[in-house]
Design a protein that fits this description.
alpha+beta, globular
C-alpha cells in the first residue's frame, strides 16, 4: 500500500505551510490554503470531498510538529460523528461552517471515571412540549472550551443518542482543564438541564459514536507516527552531533542498537496506520479491527520512541530549552485519548473471538 502522487503533494504543501506558521496560528492558513477543516466533508456540504488518506497525510504532518490546531477534534471526530448519524438536516446546518473553518466542532463522549461510551451516564429527557434537556458531565473534550458546535452523547429511553447542544446556552458550563500535554487543549463540560437537539435517530448514537471513534483512532495513529518519526529524526541528529569521550555518541554500538529498535517500531507502526487509513478509505468492514490494531501499535511505538528521545538527549531533554519533553508528554497523553493500548487489544481480541468482550 502506497500513497499516491496527489497525497504526497498534499504532504509537501502541509509541511511547507507548517514550517512558516507555528502553533495555533497555523489553523487559519491550513483552512484557507489547504482546506484542512473540510477535507473529510462531502462537497454537497461545502467540503473537499476527500477521504481517509488525505486526513492521514494531514494528521501525520501535524503530529510531526505537535500542532495544537483543532483538526482531530473538529475536522475528524465532530465531522465523522455528524456524517455517521445520517441526519441530513443536522449535516446541512452544521457541516458547512465546520468545513469552512468558521466554526470549530467538539465531540463530548468521555465521562469521569470508568465508563462505557455506549452507555453514557449523561441523561437526556424529553419534556411534554418536545424539548430535550441533557444533564451530566463530559471530560477530555478536545477544544471543548472554545468550540462553536458541541455534540454530546447521552442516554435516552431509546438508548445512547447523539445531540447538539448550544455551546454557550443556559445550563452549559465549559471549563478548560490543565493537561500534561499543553499542545492538546481539553475541557470539562457540565450540563444541567441544557437544551439539546437530537442528531440522528434515537438510540443510534452508540453506532455513530463507534464509527467516529474508529475514524478518530485511525487519524490519531497517523499523528502518532508523524510525531514518533520526527522524534526519532531529532534523536539521530543529536546522536551524530553530541560528542562524549572524544566520539559522537551515535558511534557507540549500544546507542546504534537503541536507535535501530526505534526505527523498526516507527516503520511497523507506519504500516499499520496506513493499512487502517486504506481500510477507512475503502469502506472496508475490517476498519474496526485495523483501527484497534493501529491505535495500540502506534501509541506504544510513540511512547517508546519519546522515552528514548529523553534518555539519549540526557539532561537537556527534560528542560524547556528542548522539545524532547513535549514529544514525551504528547506521547503519553495521546495514548490515553481514545482508549489505552491494552483496551484496544482487548477489543481486537474480542472481535476476533479470542477473548470475551470487556
Amino acid at each position: 500500500m502506497r500513497l499516491g502522487e496527489e497525497q504526497e503533494e498534499l504532504r509537501a504543501a502541509v509541511r511547507s505551510l507548517l514550517a512558516r506558521h507555528e502553533g495555533a496560528a497555523a489553523w487559519r492558513p491550513l483552512v484557507e490554503q489547504i482546506g484542512a477543516a473540510g477535507l473529510a466533508v462531502p462537497e454537497e456540504y461545502g467540503g473537499a470531498g476527500c477521504g481517509a488518506l488525505e486526513v492521514h497525510v494531514v494528521t501525520e504532518e501535524l503530529g510531526r510538529v505537535l500542532s495544537p490546531v483543532p483538526f482531530l477534534g473538529s475536522a475528524v471526530l465532530a465531522v465523522r460523528a455528524l456524517l455517521a448519524s445520517g441526519d441530513a438536516a443536522a449535516c446541512g446546518d452544521l457541516l458547512p461552517g465546520l468545513a469552512a473553518g468558521t466554526a470549530v466542532g467538539a465531540l463530548a463522549w468521555a465521562e469521569p471515571g470508568p465508563s462505557d461510551p455506549a452507555s453514557p451516564r449523561t441523561r437526556a429527557e424529553q419534556e411534554p412540549d418536545g424539548t430535550w434537556r441533557l444533564t451530566g458531565v463530559k471530560e477530555h473534550v478536545l477544544h471543548g472550551a472554545d468550540a462553536d458546535v458541541l455534540l454530546v452523547t447521552a442516554g435516552s429511553a431509546a438508548g445512547c443518542s447523539l445531540f447538539q447542544v448550544p455551546a454557550d446556552g443556559p445550563g452549559v458550563v465549559r471549563e478548560a482543564v490543565g493537561t500534561m500535554d499543553l499542545t492538546r487543549p481539553q475541557a470539562r463540560v457540565r450540563l444541567d438541564g441544557a437544551r439539546a437537539r437530537p442528531v440522528g435517530a434515537g438510540g443510534d448514537g452508540g453506532r455513530a459514536l463507534a464509527r467516529a471513534l474508529d475514524e478518530g483512532a485511525v487519524a490519531l495513529a497517523a499523528e502518532q507516527v508523524g510525531a514518533a518519526s520526527r522524534a526519532l529524526e531529532a534523536t539521530v541528529e543529536y546522536a551524530k552531533a553530541r560528542v562524549q569521550f572524544g566520539r559522537a555518541i551515535g558511534s557507540f554500538q549500544a546507542v546504534k542498537h537503541r536507535l535501530a529498535d526505534c526505527y523498526v517500531m516507527v516503520e511497523s507502526a507506519r504500516s499499520l496506520a496506513l493499512a487502517a487509513a486504506f481500510a477507512s478509505a475503502d469502506g472496508s468492514p475490517e476498519l474496526p479491527r485495523l483501527a484497534a490494531a493501529a491505535a495500540s501499535a502506534c501509541s506504544e511505538a510513540f511512547s517508546a520512541v519519546a522515552g528514548e528521545m529523553i534518555q539519549l538527549h540526557g539532561g537537556i531533554g527534560i528542560t524547556w530549552e528542548h522539545d524532547a519533553h513535549r514529544y514525551f508528554k504528547r506521547a503519553h497523553g495521546s495514548a490515553l485519548l481514545l482508549g489505552t493500548p491494552s483496551s484496544h487489544r482487548r477489543r481486537l481480541a474480542a472481535d476476533l473471538g479470542l477473548a470475551p468482550a470487556v
